[in-house]
Design a protein that fits this description.
67% helix; elongated; 5 helices; mainly alpha
């Protein structure tokens, strides 16, 4: 179970890193040169940049969750609720291998 989870976690982490690499263009600073970019285009570029940065922050948070799950696998604590210590349902871990809480404590 934990080896399968480990592989899924590593695959998801690689996918997140690839998404970040592909989205680098959207996070670049917006040029303020009004002659090359109109005001509305610049505003649109700023909005795209803000959305890309927010998405990047969410990806970083997910990578931290994945890293924590990988540590729990290495330490032998994977699959147990951090709140109550009970086993997390297998179906829950299949859905989200980085889950940290059982369904009762996650509410």
């Amino acid at each position: 179970m934990s080896e399968e989870a480990r592989e899924r976690l590593l695959a998801r982490r690689r996918a997140l890193e690839e998404e970040q690499r592909l989205d680098e263009e959207g996070r670049k600073p917006v040029t303020l040169d009004q002659e090359s970019v109109g005001r509305l285009s610049r505003m649109d570029a700023l909005q795209v940049q803000a959305m890309a940065q927010a998405l990047d922050r969410r990806r970083e948070q997910e990578k931290l969750r994945i890293d924590a799950a990988l540590r729990r696998i290495e330490e032998g604590d994977y699959g147990f609720c951090l709140e109550c210590g009970e086993a997390i349902a297998e179906k829950r871990l299949e859905h989200d291998p980085a889950a940290t809480h059982c369904i009762g404590c996650a509410r």
